Amino acid sequence: MSKLQTVKGFADLFAPLSGLYTLMEDTARRVFGAYGYRELRTPIMERTELFQRGIGAETDIVQKEMYTFPDRKGRSLTLRPEATAGVMRAYIENNLHAREQVSRFFTCGPMFRYERPQKGRMRQFHQLNCECLGAEEPQVDAEVVLMLLLFLEEIGLDGLSAEINTLGCRECRPTYRKALTDFLRRIDPATLCEDCRRRVEINPMRLLDCKVPSCREQTDGAPQIRDHVCAGCSAHFDTVLAILDKERVDYILNPRLVRGLDYYSRTTFEIVSASIGAQGSVAGGGRYDGLVKDLGGPDVPGIGFACGMERLALMLGDKESLLPRPDFYFAVLDEAASDTALHAAQTLRKARLAGEMSFGAGSLKSRLRQASRSNAEYCLILGGAELEAQKVVVKHMDSGEQAEIPLTTLADWAEIRFEDKMERGRKGGCR
Ligand SMILES: [Zn+2]
Ligand SMILES: [Zn+2]
Question: Which of 73, 155, 361, 423 is the most exposed place for a label (fewest CB within 10 A)?
């Protein structure tokens, strides 16, 4: 029989990597929660039509990258390739705009795209998403950028900066698009890549974010949208930038930061980290004031972002030290001591300490090796002699200091350890 394997582009996440994902999710809940974002868990599967309408039937995602298949009754279903469309669907379906003026959602979980797997890009990947619906004020845009930066700092990334642009609105973008198209038509098509030649007439703004060097060279002098937006869009963008200045955010204006779809409007942004080079975008988002309406909902504005967790995990890499350290390793040397040890370890867990216990008999040397491998702070040792004396040896793994304590006082010892841990946590000395 052949060996069972995962599907190509799908991966098992073992510890400590899985712990990094937990850390990212916990931090996201805490930081985004501090801004009033609450978790929404949408299904990972939706009707295909949602993505055709919510992402755009002409996009690469919908055309080439979706996991789409008929269910047993022949209805076309799709594993979600992104989170926003599902959140919009939930918002509209449950009439949330009638209940609250502003809705703030945080989601996290797996997404699916049929792409060529490569380092940091899997067919099942994971995202953290935030969406804020119902507020059009520029303060919201600035707050979203600040919140995202704070989250990235809190998980331990540094060298962060923002790239930001405005895309105008449905009123002023056509004027810009015309100016851009006029400029692009004067370019010799032979100097453009195949995609760009096609896009000149159908989606001229996408030429600005083409990565092909010759295309970039040709579009270097292209008209910039900021010079063409209406007074409302201009004032909105100025306010966003003024807040970012005041909060000392490191940002650059990037006129090439565009999005292909009509419902994207006004502020668009990406966060880049110096630690992964020039292509180092770790998160991106922007305003999509027309999307809810396009999907058959009320005409409410929206803004959001997505943050790829595989990318973040890659950058956090070896930071295993970010993960919580076990409080103890319970080393049982003698099988006769097993039941007593199990009860003692249970006492520790009830006092909210965490650690594993060894089973069966084993030498002190091998047990200490296991304790060290588990990175526990203390090793508790219980063998035949200790059992006889109703005591346990407690060894501090870093200093090597050890003491004997009576089993009857173990709960008190555990309580002190727990308080000590909380105190260090408050001081930021131990995560
Ligand atoms: Zn405008
Ligand atoms: Zn191109």
Answer: 73
